Amino acid sequence: MLAAGCGGPPPRSAPGPATAKSSTAAGRQKLAITIYNSDFALVREERTLPLAKGRVELAYADVSAHIQPETVHLRALEAPDALEVLEQNYRYDLLTPDKLLEKYVGKQVKVVRYNEKLGIEETKLADVLSVENGPVLRIDGEITSGVPGRFVFPDVPPNLLAKPTLVWLLASNVEQQRVEVSYLTSNLSWRADYVVVLDAADKKADLTGWVTLANTSGTSYENAELKLVAGDVQRIAPPPPPEPMLEADEAAAPMAARPQFKQESLFEYHLYTLERPATVLDRETKQVSLLEAHGVDVEKKLEFRGAEGWYRGAYGEIAQNQKVSVYVEFQNSEKNSLGMPLPKGTLRVYKADQSGAQQFVGEDAIDHTPRDEKVEVKLGEAFDVVADRKQMSWTALGDCSSESAWEIEFRNHKDTAETVHDLEPVNGDWEIVQSSQPAVKKDAHTFEFVVPVPARGATKVSYRVRIRWC
Amino acid sequence: MVLKQESGSRGRGRFALPLVSALALSLATPAARAQAPKPAVAPKSAVAPTAAAVSNAAVAPKTKVSGDADRTKVSITVYNSGFGLVREVRELKDLGTGRVALEIRDVAATVQPETVAVKASGNGLRVLEQNYRYDLLTPETLLEKYVGRNVRAYRYHEATGKEDVVDAKVLSVAGSPVLQIGNEITFGYPGRLAFPELPPDLIAKPTLVWLVDSTQAQQNVEVSYLAQNMSWKADYVFVVNASDDRGDLVGWVTLQNQTGATYRDAELKLVAGDVNRVQPEAQMPMRAYKAMPAPAASGTAFREEGLFEYHLYTLDRPTTVRDKEQKQVTLLEAAGIGITKKLIFFGQSYWFRGQYGQVSQNQKIGVYLDFKNTEANHLGLPLPKGTVRVYKADKSGAKQFVGEDAIDHTPRDEKVRIKMGEAFDVVADRKQTEWKALGNCTSESAWEIEIRNHKDEAVHVEVREPAGGDWTIVESSLPATKEDAQTFTFDVPVPKRGATKVKYRVRVRWC
Fold first, then answer.
1. In which element (H, E) is residue A14 found?
2. For residue range A289-298, what is the model confidence (pLDDT) as tens digits?
3. Do A134 and B138 touch (CB under 8 A)?
């Protein structure tokens, strides 16, 4: 598979020096990239390699600049038995001015200087004595440094390269061969962006999912088969945080296109395959539609949350005109016209104003969400619904027990009635002694009041809580 | 060439230090250098009679230089932890007899000088001293050596297009050079300075110099040393089948060389194991070869043997390891390894003591692969520390990457567990449904874990709960298994597109 061909009679001990060959993108026949959520990608390409019988030293050019060299694998496609990878080398001893000069220590170079008066270049011979902290030269029997002009070298020393290069030492029995090469590279990433358009009553919505992929890997991938993997795949050295991407779709919802990805399960993740080849250029952000759903039932919810520490201590009025948050939730089920895995991403919600123009009403991040799970996103804080919270009395009942009375007033300044979900987190071993509305225990440390508030009216909730903390 | 010219000054005693203290020898102070007699002229001959006293020799040594052209054999043994042992044989055709200062060039720039050992093939060589010299020739050190002496200052004259030359005396180099030109004292003189000759003892690169007594004009010498910035690690490619129960493993060796030297046609050996190194001093690794039966690995390029308490891998052909190169060679191959995919949901020990509501919603469940490194499982090989990358074919047959993890050195017959990632379609909610104080340091809490499986096949999830303190499970909807003093587990079957709830009560006492 990804490794060298196993078995077979490869001419491993072929005598003689290796034949040098090279392969570039021109020999590429097929290209596939699989991009993962966490800023890396698997690149797979097929090329026909020029080979020779015996040992071949093959330089393989036009790979990503952010390649992880230890993940490169070569697989012969035509005659696996006729090709064996003896070694795979990644060379990065680069040809730089400093390196060049260093290789000439103890050798003679020319120093060329432009003579402004005469308008000619003057050449002197110089012995390079040392290059530590600047070159020290011997010119005409004198030792000197800081000589103006440029150095001229007779030759490029062997093993200095222009670019980091992937070189294979291969044992081959054929003159050329089609191979598949795969490697992991960083600086390729994708994320999902969802556009939710609410109807006037906030009851139904249309959802469009977009894939936004960004390529800063230093290479363009032309006519590539594009696949995306959604899921948290373990990497041992976390790749650097991705560069912030252009928020091109922030202002206006892009026109919904027909979804172009085919979804399948892969291991414990999901794989999306684009149905047509795509070209991903270097330094490009590309958007492709991922999914589409119409008439999704959504529920708008107003939520008011308390804080845990309040029930133990003595306070007066804790907050006036406290904000009530707005959430939208929907079920990711087939019954609800959805029921598909929703990859991690940003969900942006739009709603039409009275003139029919769609306005942005909030966004939130969602994690990977399998089908049949509930999605809850926070859109913001309600403008017209506010709440005051007051502690009306506090009594100590011993070293680690107390009783307190509370009053929460919800005021609705809208022309429609609203229902506020008041979630109260409470610590310790607690009990509600009395309350004006029925309290629902949600879990060991939370209770809830569901409070209807009339149009342009107010509703008060009063209750007493006894707690014990040891 | 630089070094040959200052040959007469070698062995004057200042550099004649025992090898262990080579590093303690910092740059000789200018005062000490000023006391050293200066050669009147730079001697061009290899043999330079000087009157300088050599501590234990009456005759001034001849200087010989050995570069990589003399190298007839090189072998490198690379260790996991970023160092290598280089062993090379050099044929010294023109050593001569008598006392010789032998300069060895083309060794790694990262050589640890105190680990250098030299051995002659016969009895024709006795090492008196071993020196590591690193007083480097730089524009600054050159100028420093000329304090109080005359130099020439060149300045380009734009009108004439010629360089004007004046004689100058260097008065001081603290800060920038202060010069006396004629009767004037000046600094910031434009142009460049030229010096009549190279001061002795300044060299272009750190160099190893041995003072030896030779009785054979031509002989073979074996030199060995430890060098830093050479390392290797293992990279494994693991391909799992469609049902996630079998896999093929290929191990690769990834070798890095940043020692500053290239080793041509080297015999390559790798040692796998955690070899103790003293920091910062180095210690020669022990050599106690013990033959062990070769493992049943299929045709790979490396031969494996036990070495002391480690494993040694020898490449069966010479290879060239260039400077600044990363090299990969196949280490092992095994097919049809039985594997188990596991879904594990981890808890936190402090949860049982404290008071929480809903701890987490849609919490992630980890995916792990377990396999046994046994012969029965088509493996049974020592697996050196490295990275395992797992691939699986998608429906079109293309192999996709599905996760990677690091493994430590793993002997045969041990179990390997690698984390692949987090499951997309299996999620869990954890809720504390009740909490009661039972006194100052005892509490009872009730928990509900709901695991939901959105896949089209049933799964088993291991719920692993680490509990602190003195704990008792009062009741549970599924049998709990006590794994150790602080851990209990539940094996939870979750039907396809369904959910399973695990409910239990724990009483914890923490004092």
1. none
2. 888 888 899 9
3. yes
